[in-house]
Design brief:
Length: 654
Amino acid sequence: MGANASSYPHSCSPRVGGNSQAQQTFIGTSSYSQQGYGCESKLYSLDHGHEKPQDKKKRTSGLATLKKKFIKRRKSNRSADHAKQMRELLSGWDVRDVNALVEEYEGTSALKELSLQASVARPEARTLQKDMADLYEYKYCTDVDLIFQETCFPVHRAILAARCPFFKTLLSSSPEYGAEIIMDINTAGIDMPMFSALLHYLYTGEFGMEDSRFQNVDILVQLREEFGTPNSLDVDMRGLFDYMCYYDVVLSFSSDSELVEAFGGNQNCLDEELKAHKAIISARSPFFRNLLQRRIRTGEEITDRTLRTPTRIILDESIIPKKYAKVILHCMYTDMVDLAVLHCSPSVGSLSEVQALVAGKPNMTRAEEAMELYHIALFLEFNMLAQGCEDIIAESISLDTLIAILKWSSHPYGSKWVHRQALHFLCEEFSQVMTSDVFYELSKDHLLTAIQSDYLQASEQDILKYLIKWGEHQLMKRIADREPNLLSGTAHSVNKRGVKRRDLDIEELREILSSLLPFVRIEHILPINSEVLSDAMKRGLISTPPSDMLPTTEGGKSNAWLRQKNAGIYVRPRLFSPYVEEAKSVLDEMMVEQTDLVRLRMVRMSNVPDTLYMVNNAVPQCCHVISHQQISSNQSSPPSVVANEIPDLTTVFI
């Protein structure tokens, strides 16, 4: 192993926190805020630079602002229409029925909260601190031995030098590989367990053991004076990445020489080497750990040590593109996925970039870069990097990227976690999706998953309406695909002249929608006399709803909305926000009316005279009980009413 001064520089640049990069994704802690009936997940922490609010306003054109106002106004109007329909439905309901519906909504809302927590859950990725603890415990790729009280502690030169000024000075005097350094500590009371705890602290930022001596201020002051005070682990590891003190491995990339010559690239540029530390890459990635251990078993490591050169690892750029190498190393040292590193050196090309240039492909988006990097992370078994890429992809979900992310995450090599977030976005923004062109690009499977959800944010009438439109669009595509090639793309083709609705084959349209329409909750369509429902029934796309689901009583369709009054198979109403909020508002108004009625009744009751008081004053004198007088000892009978005195029968005795 290269252990000379060239491999292990005696001096390192000052430890600093490193330059703050824009658009950094910090992994490790994820917060997910509950969203009433909408969803706004915060799965990552992004630093988008320091941009003043007024600068953002300048970049927003007046036309875009006006468009947003119109869209917001349309959304408000649609919500008002939905609220009006729900109010009309509940107008003939009893307060107990409305309360039962609200309780059903509240129960569904509680289930949604649990569903949200389950959708964002994923296995915990190993952090830098945990991997550094394992590195100290299992001693991967150690290069120096510390001898303290006749006990050998194999350690890593680069880590101790980066973390502690004392060890930086001590190790610079013995640069050779595998050097044995006898420790002479002046601080009194330091035994072998305590020294091991100090080394554990330098690796992880924690002592790793409970010892009352660490609570002794005097001992801590002495240790600080002798060893110095290290920065936080994150700061020191960032400094180690920036300056690569005592690096002992270089990463090289194989490339296609024909492409290099064709585009005037030079071999030195395409085969640029990246410096790293065996200890770090073996601790963070089982792939690199197994690779380095295999070199030790085969004797290749001995050759490097004899020649005093760093270990060279050659990577296939078709598997691990060189442009991602620095992002990978940056994450290994800092637990942060920073895609801005990709664009720091635009002059440095890679095989994948050259191939994209040949194919005429546009530049990759941030989400596409994260998708490609995600596959590399899985190959390297580097879960922290994989989850960071998932966070970036989830943050990129929008109307423009929804279809691409759904398709990618649906594949076996995609991320199931990202797929859940994309489906969640689809359900929460379904009202917006179905009115855009994106809706017609949705696959049947994704559409089926969405309309099966109890939390879909759309009314049943809109769901039915746009499902039929989606089916008609799919049928037109079939017709266009079936037409002769001679007509395709001409003025007589389907794409040019269009297809009228009456020309569509109803049987084929019914076959396309056969797996989707059963999940439309027709019994919950509002208004009750929906034209969309009537038109679908006339066309034979759906059968007539059962008679008990039609408005036959004064209560309207209450039996289809309430679990207690449903005669058939009960279908839970969707947790559609305008319906829920309006139902709560109606219930509050009914409760206020009931409260006012109760208060009015109490006022009327308070005006009724006290009956006992009236009886007490109305009793005639003839009915008074004889006064208690001294009765002789031989009389034991109780007093009685005066004989021959009959009270007025109209007087009530209580």
